[in-house]
Design a protein that fits this description.
With about 300 residues, the chain is of the alpha/beta class. Helices cover about 35% and strands about 30% of the residues. The chain is built from ten helices and ten strands. The strands form two sheets. Strands 1, 2, 3, 4 and 5 form a five-stranded mixed sheet that branches. It has a five-stranded mixed sheet with strand order 8-7-6-9-10, with helices on both faces. Strand 6 and strand 7 form a beta hairpin. Helix 2 packs across helix 4.
Length: about 300
């Protein structure tokens, strides 16, 4: 087990903490790694994120780590409480491998979230001998972190489309950035109404919305209304050109007429030729959007 501690120190070292001991559990189905504070290190307040004087120590907690050679791995650590003068309260310390009361380590949540992009959540849970709820928790953590630290930057063109995720006309509105140098999912909203599409522009704010030049959409009336008829959107965007069911521009068309700004946009977005974002929103992308919808809708 000494070699395992050496590996952890090489690839996943925590300042201020030491991997003390590694051992098999009593049933030999998992590996338990005891962690202790490094001598002389001070605990960090989880509220103000500053070192504070120690107060007491709680009972040992188990944090689930990335599986190793088919064995479940747990970090064992007794959390300290600090008497924080800044916060004027006794607060549990902040540890670099954990997030609040979650039982999964940050590294394991990122690990599960990455696999959840390739497999279904159920398959991910079965492959790594965990539960669907833990995979959901991992994805929620990673998506929330990504949204908090996301930089939208300049957006020239967006595509909006809807997908049905359940029987009984249950739809989601998807908004993508479709610039030539950037293609990504920006927003997922419930239903396919005017209010749901307006929610996207409310989320990105006036400054980013005012720089959008083109909108690729089908002829669904609520999307068209938001594009040009709603007074708030007219003030933000003016009459944004709508590229409805864009088709590729053939060489014959290019010779027949010079390219205007709108025709250039149609040519640039020709990959959406079948009435929306079908090429971009392939089944794998749709399934990920569906799985993340409940998280993004709350953000």
């Amino acid at each position: 087990m000494l070699q395992l501690i050496t590996i952890l120190n090489r690839c996943h070292r925590f300042p201020g903490f030491v991997y003390h001991q590694a051992r098999f559990s009593s049933d030999h189905k998992s590996i338990e790694i005891a962690v202790r504070p490094r001598k002389g290190s001070r605990a960090v307040c989880s509220r103000c994120h500053q070192p504070a004087a120690g107060y007491d120590q709680l009972s040992e907690r188990r944090f689930e780590f990335i599986p190793f050679w088919g064995f479940l791995v747990f970090l064992l650590y007794s959390m300290r409480r600090v008497d924080c003068r800044r916060c004027e309260a006794v607060i549990v310390e902040e540890v670099p491998w954990g997030d609040g009361k979650r039982t999964l380590t940050r590294a394991y949540m990122l690990f599960l979230a990455r696999w959840a992009r390739r497999l279904s959540w159920k398959e991910t849970a079965e492959a790594f001998r965990t539960s669907w709820e833990k995979v959901f928790d991992a994805v929620e953590h990673v998506v929330t972190f990504g949204l908090e630290h996301r930089k939208l930057g300049a957006i020239d063109a967006i595509g909006v489309d809807e997908i049905q995720y359940a029987k009984g006309h249950k739809y989601l509105t998807l908004v993508y950035q479709i610039d030539l140098d950037a293609t990504r999912l920006l927003w997922v909203g419930k239903e396919r109404t005017i209010e749901s599409f307006r929610g996207f522009f409310t989320t990105i704010g006036d400054e980013v919305a005012s720089k959008i030049v083109f909108v690729c959409s089908d002829m669904w009336e609520p999307y068209l209304k938001v594009n040009g008829e709603e007074p708030i959107m007219r003030r933000k965007l003016g009459r944004v050109p709508v590229i409805a069911r864009a088709r590729p521009v053939s060489p014959r068309d290019n010779k027949a007429a010079p390219q205007s700004e709108s025709s250039h946009a149609i040519n640039s977005t020709s990959r959406f030729q079948r009435g929306g974002l079908e090429d971009l929103a392939a089944p794998s992308t749709f399934s990920r959007a569906l799985r993340l919808a409940s998280i993004l809708a709350r953000a």
